[in-house]
Write a structure and sequence with these properties.
The chain is built from seven helices and no strands. Helix 2 runs antiparallel to helix 3 and helix 2 packs parallel to helix 4. The chain is globular and about 70 Å long.
């Protein structure tokens, strides 16, 4: 019994030692430095995204379904929850102009954290995204009714509401 435990630990230790150089060679070893003035952000990698394009002639029901899906499938959980619940509440009542604003807002910025910081008013919203929909999102984010927002609603549930 003891020899099998020792053997497992020995093998596990060897595997970890063999794996470690491969991992450290790929991952940048950077500690959190906050908003330090010395942080040049030179170690960040920007992944270019295709530019956002307006989709003229897209039927409103198709646009709502697309925006519903794109609200739910974000790059970060905070926005998945925030935007999908926002879409659940407002998407059906948005005008064509508001749908266009919302489409641009959630699809043009390349960084989901920007959208989150603008919605929570942690950073000022650039003029291009400021508008009716951003104001609605900021108010929604304040959660005046103290709703429990721990998870995004299912797509199937929202699909039934989109007409």
């Amino acid at each position: 019994m003891l020899s099998s435990v020792v053997a497992k630990r020995l093998v596990a230790g060897m595997c970890q030692a063999a794996w470690r150089p491969a991992v450290t060679g790929l991952v940048s070893c950077r500690a959190y430095r906050g908003d330090s003035p010395e942080d040049t952000r030179g170690d960040l990698i920007e992944i270019p995204l295709p530019p956002w394009e307006e989709r003229p002639g897209e039927p409103a029901d198709i646009k709502k379904k697309r925006l519903l899906y794109e609200s739910r499938k974000r790059g970060m959980l905070e926005n998945c929850i925030l935007l999908s619940l926002f879409a659940k509440q407002y998407l059906n009542t948005m005008s064509e102009k508001q749908l266009l604003q919302y489409d641009r807002l959630i699809n043009e910025p390349s960084n989901d954290w920007d959208i989150y910081y603008w919605a929570t008013e942690a950073q000022p919203t650039p003029d291009i995204y400021q508008g009716e929909v951003m104001e609605m999102l900021k108010e929604f984010t304040k959660n005046h009714n103290h709703e429990q927002r721990l998870d995004a609603p299912s797509l199937e549930y929202l699909e039934k509401e989109i007409q």
